[in-house]
UniProtKB/TrEMBL annotation:
Domain of life: Eukaryota
Keyword Glycoprotein: no
Protein name in the entry: 26S proteasome non-ATPase regulatory subunit 5
GO cellular component: cytosol; proteasome complex
Gene name in the database record: LOC114247576
One of the Pfam families matching this protein, by short name: Proteasom_PSMB
Record bears the keyword Ligase: no
Coiled coil spans: none
GO-annotated biological processes: proteasome assembly
Amino acid sequence: MDAEVAEQLRDLITRLQTDEDIPSAMNQLKTLLVSAPTEISETILEVGLSKILQCFNIFDRHLVDLICEVLTLCFEKFSPGEVIKSFTGNFMYLLRHENAHVRRLAVDEIAKAVISSSNALPIPQYIDVYVAVGQLVGDNDIGVANKAILITSNLPEEAYTKVLEEMKILLQYSSSSKCNVFEVIINISIKSYDLFKICLELGYIDIMVQEIQSLDVLYQLNILELMSTLAIKPYGINYLLNSGAMDKLVTVVIDLKTSPVGGILIPGYMKLFGCIAHYFPKEIIEKYPTLLNCLFGLFESEKQAVLPVALDTFGFVGSTTEGKLSLVASGGKFTETMMKVNLLIKNSSSDIKIRALNCLTNLISIEKDTNTANSKPVDHRVTLMTREWFRGLSEQPSSMDLLFDICKNPFPDIRLAAFGLLDAVSQHQWGHELIARTAGFIEYLLDRSVDFTKECKEAKYDIIKRLSNSEVFDSNITSRLQAYVEEGPFYCNRMLEVAMEDAD
């Protein structure tokens, strides 16, 4: 490193001790650091940061922004975590500074260290830094809070007992602060059962369940969203079922039927119900019929806003073999709901049409259930049910003719959803037979000149790959299907056409 650059840095930092020189010296520091080599870090270590930090005592917003720029340039000369190790005390000061810009500066640098390596700031030497960041999870500044959430959700495992214990103080503050804390708790809990146990033993999970009964509607919705994330883990589901939390949730849902805010909150409860019922459909549907009836009730609501959640939940619960059988066992309400799904596919806005197509796809598919996807043969009850469900889509035109029309829809997102349903249908022998009897459908699928997006080409290829192994088509069609598979989803015959034109 040029000795002159190092000397300039020392001189400028010395000038910061004179108040009237601070603005000029700070601007010159900024200019110097922009072009200074990384070796300047040696001089920064030598002279320290204290003289720069002292300038924060001058209450000038523009100067604070300039100081932060200078500090950022200083930090950039160090590898992730190195500057924090060298100036730990200074970082503790920055993390607790009253100015949000200064706190953001500090958490941004700590985030770089934590994300780059879980050992960048090892325990226990830097546990105080982690505790200080954890307490910023409830910061009033959204930028600071979000970065603190990111950091605290990705700490070394051995840091959590101390950090989470100290974070409890945030539960005394606003609902926004508590939501941020719970977000960290869920982010941690879904990583492993051991981390979930730490959160459980510290009381956080139980507190979340209690807070669901808050009068703050938005707060309730946020907690339900977080609990839905936890419910995808087996130990999360087991906690909800065995701790009595599920019984409390059902009680709340019953009360919501007559509540003025029920229309807002019930979709959130249904999403949570769907996550749990997906994994334990028979147990949940039999033990908590109120929840299933509530789901069916959403399809009867005049509020269009609840339909997306209703469709997603209905399809998610019915995506497994056990889910399909459990839903059918509910009787007439299920049949009525299937009719409503079919009507939504035929007559609704684009967004609802896509959700309804995806819902029916989940109900008809036999490959979305990881427990039975590779089992042979398929449960004959599922074969019979799915065939009837698809036939119920339309009488005139037939269900396959209607699906053919939707596959030709000019909007790519609707077309892709239709291909998803066609793929589910083609997982069944009865589906192959219906496709074979639908005039022009195979020719349409094999026609590469039809304009498709990348996603649609891939979806169409998967369907053709299934059909190429079918025995319902004549040898000519089978050969064409197999040739298509060999050529791949993105084959283009333009090169051959150009070559023939050149030869002419």
